[in-house]
């Protein structure tokens, strides 16, 4: 049994054809590009070359309009303006007139910004200036508003300032005015500093395999995470004539830890196994032992042998736990008569 249908499913319906025809008739013309100064000059020269006694032949306006892809009205405007300027003996300006469109730019006076007390974030500026966040960001990009970070500087007294200037002047080399302008290259200086680090973080981001499970982290209190202090010693690196590094200046990094035997057994270790624990309070005694027993031997081991016997200055900051050159236990190490002489000083120079 065969069936016949009054229409073809593969052909569009009459309604679709009528709708497409309706859309095609309502298409707008494409916007023509504006004439540039060069195109405007070429168009005017074409008109001047083809004119006869100030008049154009029939059909030349349409011809030049098709040639430059503009309307007849544009050609008439240019030609009539050129004839009018010629009659009054005035120069013809071919520059393009820019048309201002859109709303006016929001203007903010500089003294208004300086009078605002709370300026720590963009939201404060929005509320005080009564503008949107987009306008505020645009003003920052234009340079009308300048982001600035206020660092916290130390409150130095006159004695501190004189001490700093004196320390800098002591680094000058030479006795004559021509040589005294050169500074000590500080190849025999070792800089020491400490830093606290948390043993763990409240949250840690890692990347796992698709079927891998994340580590389950626990702690007794997330507000009191144990910290450990590290001390580092660095010096100025050395390079040979071929610009090869012969000494990188990285001497050592030591943690303030100690070992003691475990008091009781557990599933992780047996009783009496030595475990590493952190020093929770670092005082002058701890820093002295670290300097004498760990840092000085590391300097002696890694210091370049080619420099021979010299004085090595240990540079420290003004922490209260640091020792000075006149420390009694430090003086015993200083007078041992090793290959190098060490000098220790707080924010100045310390001889080892």
What brief labels describe this structure?
352 residues; alpha+beta; six-stranded mixed β-sheet; two-stranded antiparallel ribbon; 10 helices; elongated; disordered N terminus; disordered C terminus
Can you describe this structure?
This protein has 352 residues and is an alpha+beta fold. Among the domains are: 62 residues; 33 residues, no CATH class; 143 residues, no CATH class. The chain is 32% helix and 16% strand. The protein has ten helices and twelve strands. The strands form four sheets. Strands 3, 4, 7, 10, 11 and 12 form a six-stranded mixed sheet that branches. A two-stranded antiparallel sheet has the order 1-2. Helix 3 crosses helix 4. The chain is elongated and about 115 Å long. The termini are far apart. The N terminus and C terminus are likely disordered.
Number of DSSP helices?
A: 10
Please bin the fraction of helical residues: 25-40%
Structural classification: alpha+beta
Residue stretches low in confidence (pLDDT < 50, at least 5 long) are: 1-7, 22-27, 348-352
Total strands: 12
- Quaternary organization: single chain
Helices and strands, in order, run as HHHHHHHHEEEEEEEEEHEHEE
If you average the pLDDT, what whole number results? Answer: 79
N-to-C CA distance: 112 Å
Tell me the radius of gyration.
Answer: 42 Å
Main β-sheet description = 6 strands, mixed
